[in-house]
Design a protein that fits this description.
3 helices; mainly alpha
Length: 98
């Protein structure tokens, strides 16, 4: 069996829009770096079902909430390192590493 690298396995075609050379590999989408042809060949189809739909909805809502918090200054309620859990973890790490 012949072992070839990914660079050896690719071929080169001409871009139909700008005629620049485009490397083509069988495992990858071919796109032209010169004119950005086929950079985004299309979004994947969403996974069907109620659970994936709920995940997408929650992710979208969380993303919107996070963006709103970032616009307002980060959304931190307490300074880092000032609560009891952080101080206890820091103390334990000093004992372990010491």
């Amino acid at each position: 069996m012949e072992n070839r690298s990914a660079a050896e396995a690719t071929s080169v075609r001409e871009c139909p829009e700008c005629r620049a050379p485009v490397p083509v590999g069988e495992r990858y989408v071919d796109w032209c770096a010169a004119c950005d042809r086929n950079v985004d060949p299309g979004a994947q189809d969403p996974e069907p079902g109620r659970i994936p739909a709920a995940r997408r909805r929650l992710a979208h809502e969380y993303g919107e909430q996070l963006a709103a918090e970032m616009e307002q200054g980060g959304g931190r309620s307490a300074p880092v390192g000032r609560d009891a859990a952080t101080l206890a973890a820091f103390g334990l790490s000093l004992v372990v590493h010491g």
